[in-house]
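Let us practice reading a record.
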Amino acid sequence: MTMAYRDLHEFVEKLESENELARIKTELSPVLEITEVTNRVVKKGGKALLFERPKGYSIPVLTNAFGTEKRMLMALSIKSFDEIAEKIFSIVKKRPSSLFDAIRSFEKLRDLMAMNPKKVRNAPCKEKVAESLEKFPILKCWPKDAGKFITLPVVITKDPVSEELNAGVYRMQVFDGKTTGMHWQVHKHGAEHLRRVAELGKDKLEVAVAIGVDPVVLYSATAPLPEGISEFAFAGFLRGERVEMVDCETVDLQVPATAEIVLEGYVKVDELRIEGPFGDHTGYYTPPEPYPVFRITNITHREDAIYHATIVGKPPMEDAWLGKATERIFLPIIQMLNPEIVDMNLPIEAGFHGMAIVSIKKRYPGQAKKVMFSLWGLGMLSLTKIIVVVDNDVNVHNLGEVLWAISTRFDPSRDAILLPPSPTDALDHSAYIPCMAGKLGIDATKKLKEEGYEREYPEVAEMSQEVKEKIDRLWGEISKFL
């Protein structure tokens, strides 16, 4: 791994040096116009965009920073996601062979990933004070959105019992210059902290929000980390150096010292307000619902601040690559608990929790179903609506091969698992009851005699290796005629 970026500015400079950044000098409104330009560029796999003249503002807007695999790798300062997987396996030394080994492996990970933040006194994020959110070019993305939304905030709270910091990315609708919504879905740690505050008889939860942090910190705030591993410690593990944090001015929290913008304030346990609609990553408008209100007590920012935003909508969008990074980085941890898993694909089109496709080395009857149930009991994968299990001769990233396996190795009358309503993504609009939906498991592996398949399973028709190698040698000559 190469050296981590100190801040968002360094990442922007790197993007520009690699010809991965376009500076847009045309004056464009933060209301819809920046979204339309960004959406067109994202869909083409185009560059990161720095809008230098958002209409009515002096602060530039950065979008599509992570919109390709190349830029996501650049953000994490790696050449391949396998680098992180190898680093994780180097900690545990070997894949666990039992549940006890897996628990011991997680303990090692927790200890060795714990590169706790480093507190500093002076911080760029405190160079200027702002009176209102109106200073910043916050975007209204889609025509029927309820207003402007902050879309890439790192929202920081403290567990009132353990006092551990948590960071998550939750959208924030701007109500006025000092008030926003806080879109804490029921499964998120921020919502859990608010519930614990209420259980302790307190009336509010202190909150800090960092906008425009270094890319590793931002990624870590989106990652589905196991309980007990801090997002900032995990960021330190990925960066290879500790994250610098600074105390807030009006709340007892710390924020990344090099953030572009910092909001401080609180959420009251009994104050809700209708938030939304919002054009979401499902491609639909999430309908209006009551969510907590964030009341701001202090706003600071860098003198040369960049406003960092993302656009979500019908896939593929920029957030797809944050999801793909998670798929690759957390695969080794999933394999610790399920050693038979060879690979995994969370399809971009399925929007994170819609579908998971996994390949396994099948050795015994019922193994595919065992893997399904294991994944449905594992962290945020518990929200996955459809799990498809295939054999390890199928490339899970080639949807053509997956469909071939489903059509030739799956009997719906025997190989499907249907679960009754259970936890699902709050943004699953197909659910009849919010946050509760059924699950579908598709066993598209070749069946064994012990599973009731009495016939011999036919052999896949493939060319012999000898002929393949001969044609490989002749391919240069053959290709002249093609």
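A brief commentary: The first strand starts at residue 21 and ends at 24.
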